[in-house]
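Re-run with default settings, no changes from the original entry. Doing this only to confirm the output is reproducible before filing.
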Amino acid sequence: FGRYKQSGPAAWSPDGKYIAVAVGYRLVVRESESLEVLQLFSCLDKIEHISWAPNSTCILCALYKRSIVQAWNIELPDWSCKIDEGPAGLAYARWSPDGLNILTTASFNIRIT
């Protein structure tokens, strides 16, 4: 793993098959055994948090400074999602236990969507 550069957060998928690594504005998803790049996604800003859905098919990136969450499906690379919390800010972003929804908490815990 030493020859691979990592500059931001990283997260193993729940099933252990993948590892996602943030490199600035990019999210690199690798196969965990060979470290082969499976997907490369671009974010709107520096990635501050990575979270896998419980089924290990979807992944989200939180961009707290811009109050944005971006999500992708690694099996369907054309599918994407963007959640913009706007002036309310963004404090947390997590997957729901069923992996079908993204829960976001606004700054000052004033709103959960």
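The longest strand covers residues 18-23. The mean pLDDT is 91.
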